[in-house]
Amino acid sequence: MAWKTSAPHATNSVCPRCDAPVLIQRDGLPFVVTADTERLTPEQARKLTGPNRLAWCLRETKWSPARLLEVLAPFHNRECPWPHVVDHQCPEGTPAVKGALW
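and the corresponding structure tokens:
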């Protein structure tokens, strides 16, 4: 069995469809998360969420890489000091496959 050498963390990347900068976290959560890189307040993030768009509490310090730890929920602290990000959504009209003609 291979041992993991680092804690789960989000990495900077680029959306393969629209080329927007994104944060991707593949470990530490039950699914892969792709989020926008714009840091928001909890209230700003809450306004951008919907049934298919979640907001994430982003924990980052100068000593550790960024980590997406929890989905914002009604019980999340409204005065949370950490920045928040929301699931990435490509702009309307972005082709499903990069380079597609239709």
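(Above: one complete record from the training split.) Residues 17 and 97 are 6 Å apart (CA to CA).
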